[in-house]
Design goal:
mainly alpha
Amino acid sequence: MAQYHAEALKRVRQAGESYARLADEVKDVPPLAREALLNAGKAYESLGEVDTAKTYYGRLAQEFPDIGEAQAAQKAVAKLDADAAEMAALRDQLAGNPK
């Protein structure tokens, strides 16, 4: 089972890297660039690499601010930030340092 998990993570990482490269290669074709940025963000988010995911979501929102995907990216960043704050509060609580 662990072997399948490791293989799945490897493939998701490869997908994220491919989407990231594609976003740069097709920047002159906005629909493809938008999808590549969104999917790069999703891939890195699923790997738990929040900062990298936020980078791609942020690029999407900045480069294409007037589309639905940009709004989805902004919501994803807000959710990642909220999750991080919730995890920090939980860690503090478990460590006996409630705020």
